[in-house]
Amino acid sequence: MMPFDIRPDAVMQEVSAYSKKLTHGLQNLMEVGEISTGVTPKTAVYHEDKLTLFRFEQPKDAIPNKVPLLIVYALVNRPYMTDIQENRSTVKALMAAGQDVYLIDWGYPDRADRYLTLDDYINGYLDRCVDVICERHRVPKINILGICQGGTFSLCYSALHPEKVQNLVTMVTPVDFQTPDNMLSHWVQQVDVDLVVDTMGNVPGEMLNWTFLNLKPYQLMGQKYLGLLDTLDDPEQLKNFLRMEKWIFDSPDQAGEAFRQFIKDFYQQNKLLKGGLEIGEPVNLKNVTMPVLNIFAEQDHLVPPDASRAMRGKLGTKDYTELSFPGGHIGIYVSGKAQKTVPPAIGKWLDERS
Amino acid sequence: MADPNNAWMGNWLNSQQNYWKAWTDMAQSGIKTPEAPKNPWADGISQWWQAVSPMAPPTGRDVFDKLMDVSRGYFSMAEKFMNSAGKETSMDAMNGWFENMQTTWNDWMSNGGLLRPDAQHKSMMTFWDLPLDTWQRLAANVIPMPGDFTQAFHPEGASDHMRGQVNRFLSIPAVGYSREFQEQYQILGQRMVDYSKAVHDYQMSFGKLAVETTQEFQASVQEMAKDGKSLSSLREIYDKWVEMSEAAYARFVMTQEYQSLYGRLVNNLLAVKQQMARIVDGNLEAMHMPTHAEISTLQRRQQELRRDNLQLRKEIKAIQQQLEAMRQRDLQTPAAPKATAAKPAAVAKAPAAKKPVAKAPAKTPAKPATKAAAPTKPAAKK
């Protein structure tokens, strides 16, 4: 049997159909209008430098958990991923699960922020946000949900300030930065980070984008756009695609010193796991004594599941729970399945402990 | 009144349908096409996008640009299959196609990473070139030069011998009044040669990967044929190709070889940038203008001051709260004997309420006191 069973006229029809879709798609593209992101109403409750702390507005009749929940997102992308559209909003789903949700937007660092360190981010900005929330709610400690790099920050923060964290939830959070399947880690081992930061100052978001796209270049730079062709007829799906595309390429520059320390201490030397990490003072994971819920994605190509699972047994807590999600790094916030399962599980877990 | 854009689009669509219909009729009737451009479909779609892209809104134009890039490769693949399918019906046609691809890649590698003008599969090769193409766009933003400036070193300069000669030339000791300036430019030249070598090696590694993957793809479809399976549409072929390419790529990029290539690519680009910045700083200094290094020093000191300032404010707040707590205690001590029976209980709570606020900024654990703060604070206000 021939491995390619394609007749010339079938090829012609396929190409013709492709061409027709392109033309119609362009028409839809012209009518698509502005792409909105961040759908749930929210109020800025605290500003500092480029940072804004938001509180999402509760429905009038809601009686949320008395202990507020702070979402700490990564520095490398924008946090509106957690609230990207009406039917794909982790924030909305967390609120529906009875949580009073706050979110840190780190903003876009510019050259004046080049000397911000991890100490400034974690013991400075993050700590002051926690204080603001504690004061607003007159509670001594809050719940924290850290996502990706934000999860690593939250873990470090919880080790440094355990008295201010009631419960810690980590989502797709790396702890072991040198698992054998970690591509990012493998690539960065011979990069001279000092040269990068000393030369560039801040590290351009574009550079990170290139790195992330190269994790699966033929899918992310090629096949994905061919897939778009199948959805070009549907304006809503086209909007969803463009919204996601906007988020993917909306990468803030990274403050130089924080980047230097993150790459050297975490990726190159794996100090969070091996010990020896200092952020203002030594970070000891045994100080993480509050309940911890660790959520990871089984098909995560950015943070392999084993990088997150490494948390098990390394913390000081006696109340440690894992939740494995059958999806990828982004799917865990935006897929329909995730919306139905992950935030309700977080809400339930928090309610039982707050 | 009809939207002129829509009317224009409709006309375009009609003419396009006619175009495809004509091609289909020809294909079905088995008529050999007259002399046509080498890649009529891929070229056609490029021309179409060139014509309509000015009308596309800024939102999504990038996306459509990328879709067009992918489409050109896809159409090129379709053309190759169309030609094979029209002329031959045996496994030889497919094998010929694969071998042709490999020859093109080998040619490309022996030509120092440059496509010969008459190269076949040009559009399809852009598929493999995606990581490097994106890198070159990035590099163009990092250093103020075209991303593909390293091509200037190819093919004549591609050999190590030639690079050695250039390096020796750049190592001639500088002399005279402008010696330091000369040295700086010599260093820049050497770094650019090093970077071009790093890009070249990176590029070559992808050439090898492409050849290997093409061979694997060929073997894989032959296996499929043995199992009685087949790929029945262009899309299936493309998806299979992507799947195999990703698998081969994922294996390659986890090797020590790739780790080294990647490190050299990034480090050498940054070394060029660093030297350029030094030269610019030298010129700025000569003109008594602030240099990058000076501004960087100011930014560092400003951040240090800001950090100190925040820490001092935190400490002052803590001291103020401690003072307030002490003042409250002092007020209570003499007042205690005069107080009524109900009052001591009320004021006794107050210090507990203030304590944690004072202690919290100093990062003391003070768990019990902190817990007491929450209920008492609002009560005190009432």
Q: Helix and strand layout, with pairings?
A:
The complex is a heterodimer of chains A (354) and B (382).
Chain A: H1 8-31, E1 42-48, E2 51-56, E3 69-72, E4 83-85, E5 88-89, H2 90-96, E6 101-105, H3 118-137, E7 142-147, H4 149-160, E8 165-171, H5 183-188, H6 193-200, H7 205-213, H8 217-228, H9 235-248, H10 256-268, H11 271-274, E9 278-279, E10 281-282, E11 292-297, H12 305-309, E12 320-325, H13 331-334, H14 336-351
Parallel strand pairs in A: 3-6, 3-7, 7-8, 8-11, 11-12
Antiparallel strand pairs in A: 1-2, 2-6, 4-5, 9-10
Helix pairs in contact in A: 2-14, 3-4, 6-10
Chain B: H1 4-29, H2 40-52, H3 61-87, H4 91-110, H5 122-128, H6 130-142, H7 160-170, H8 179-226, H9 234-253, H10 256-286, H11 292-335, H12 342-359, H13 367-381
Helix pairs in contact in B: 2-3, 3-5, 4-8, 7-8, 8-9, 8-10, 11-12, 12-13
Model description:
The complex is a heterodimer of chains A (354) and B (382). Chain A is an alpha/beta fold and 354 residues long. The radius of gyration of chain A is 22 Å and the shape is globular. In chain A, 44% of the residues lie in helices and 16% in strands. Chain A has one domain: 3-Layer(aba) Sandwich (Rossmann fold). In chain A, the strands form 3 sheets. An 8-stranded mixed β-sheet of chain A has the order 1-2-6-3-7-8-11-12, sandwiched between helices. Chain B is mainly alpha-helical. Among the domains of chain B are: 163 residues, no CATH class; 40 residues. Chain B contains 13 helices and no strands. The longest helix of chain B has 48 residues. The C terminus of chain B is likely disordered. The chains are: A alpha/beta (354), B mainly alpha (382). At the A-B interface, helix 1, helix 3, helix 5, helix 6 and helix 7 of A face helix 1, helix 2, helix 3, helix 6 and helix 8 of B.
Summary?
The complex is a heterodimer of chains A (354) and B (382). Chain A is of the alpha/beta class and 354 residues long.
